[in-house]
Specification:
438 residues, mainly alpha, two-stranded antiparallel ribbon, 8 strands, 5% strand
Length: 438
């Protein structure tokens, strides 16, 4: 049909303010489903809904998202964790307040509550009182319901009062951050929608899930369930990866549990802690002051008996000592046992871990199997006994240092009298332990 005045398109022109060509497929026309957008909303409003005030494309949005989520991660690991919970580093007051404001804006978390819950986690780790132990509550619960566990811990006001001392309690904390915790994420929602339009809601939603997933889920959950261990700590903390980039260095969770008050989490030459790199950069700019890092262990030669330096180093590096005991005493004994009995099956990994940590995390059945295995091997039984005695000395909370030193000296004398070469070598090396000079 012709598109003249007498045709169908001509009739459309009589009722529509747009040229007929626009109704015949002109894709540049602001027409949707046969109706012009301007008939329902202004072009400016439609542009804001689809692009926001920023007008960013997908690449710019991805960069923005990476920046804001990593800024939240850094605020948590540097300020809430290393500065407030453990007093390992101080920040310039302006920077410290920015971190505090940003965590309120993007997570609704209150400094005092977060620090208290984390301190309680260290004090009661892997017990019924631990706010988020996978050993007690299960890995799925901690991994996927970390927010609920955090809310439960927040509701325990007696624990918040007990463990939250020394955190900010100024006017803005009392009248804004603590009084209106959900206002921060609400403001962030409006900011996100203003910047990106409708898609800003999705950006905000993922942003709100970032810390609950990576911190409450991955670090608190998988970080006590899977990974490698540099230190035989009295909990199940693990390092998820040697290179802590994505979660601000929190991936090095076993290192942190070995030395909680250290501002630096990377403790091996092959490890990297991006949070520590940020601290050193801020320190160079005059915005941070490092208060504590894990001390290095030195070994002095030809020390006949443990002395005060030995005891001081052992109490500081007790987890390193227990790790050394397993690697240099227990593991060689297991290899020798296996070599002597070629056709015997290898001890299952779960039970080998039980020898490393004293069977602390074995269930009743596994503990019985381990005891039966050890009881049939007199030398291995002796090594297990000496490990338990050394652990008791190092874990004892005594104010009488001289009595502890005497027990340590007795342990070394008896260990060397066993005639077991690996145990003798370990004792002689341990006597020379000292904290390395900085």
């Amino acid at each position: 049909m012709a598109a003249g005045k007498g045709g169908y398109a001509g009739k459309l022109n009589k009722v529509a303010p747009y040229p007929a060509a626009q109704w015949q497929g002109d894709q540049s026309s602001p027409i949707m489903s046969g109706y012009p957008v301007e008939s329902t909303m202004s072009p400016a409003f439609y542009s804001w809904l689809t692009e926001g005030l920023s007008g960013f494309g997908w690449l710019e949005i991805a960069i923005y998202f990476l920046v804001v989520t990593q800024l939240t991660i850094f605020s948590v690991t540097l300020y809430l964790h290393r500065s407030q919970a453990h007093r390992a580093v101080d920040f310039h007051p302006v920077l410290a307040h920015f971190f505090r404001f940003w965590t309120w804006l993007t997570t609704s978390m209150i400094t005092r509550e977060w620090a208290a819950i984390h301190r309680k986690h260290h004090a009661k780790c892997e017990t019924e009182e631990d706010p988020h132990s996978p050993q007690v509550r299960g890995i799925r619960k901690v991994m996927w319901q970390g927010v609920e566990l955090y809310r439960e811990a927040r509701a325990d006001r007696a624990s918040i009062e007990k463990y939250g001392k020394g955190c900010p309690d100024d006017w803005i904390e009392r009248h804004l951050y603590a009084k209106y915790p959900t206002l921060g994420p609400t403001v962030m929602l409006f900011i996100s929608v203003a910047l990106f339009g409708v898609i800003g809601v999705a950006i905000w939603a993922i942003q709100m899930l970032w810390i609950p997933f990576w911190a409450a889920g991955v670090v608190n959950g998988i970080g006590h369930w899977w990974g490698y261990r540099n230190f035989e700590t009295t909990d199940t903390a693990t390092n998820l990866t040697p290179w802590g980039f994505w979660i601000g260095g929190e991936e090095l969770h076993n290192n942190h549990h070995a030395f909680p008050s250290s501002a630096k989490f990377a403790l091996r030459k092959f490890e990297f802690d991006i949070g520590w790199a940020a601290i050193k950069l801020l320190e160079a700019m005059g915005l941070a002051k490092v208060l504590r890092v894990a001390p290095s262990l030195d070994v002095r030669p030809n020390i006949p008996m443990p002395d005060g330096e030995t005891l001081k180093a052992l109490l500081t590096h007790r987890f390193q000592a227990m790790t050394d005991y397993y690697r240099h005493v227990m593991r060689p004994a297991l290899r020798a046992e296996r070599a002597a009995a070629e056709h015997q099956p290898k001890l299952p990994r779960e039970l080998r871990k039980g020898l490393a940590d004293g069977g602390r995390w074995l269930d009743a059945g596994a503990r019985e199997r381990l005891q039966a295995f050890v009881s049939r091997r007199p030398q291995l039984a002796t090594l297990v006994e000496f490990r338990a005695r050394l652990a008791a000395v190092l874990e004892e909370r005594s104010i009488d240092a001289s009595a502890t030193l005497q027990r340590l000296q007795a342990w070394c004398a008896e260990a060397e009298a066993t005639g077991i070469r690996a145990l003798q070598d370990f004792s002689m090396r341990m006597k020379g332990y000292a904290i390395a000079a900085r």
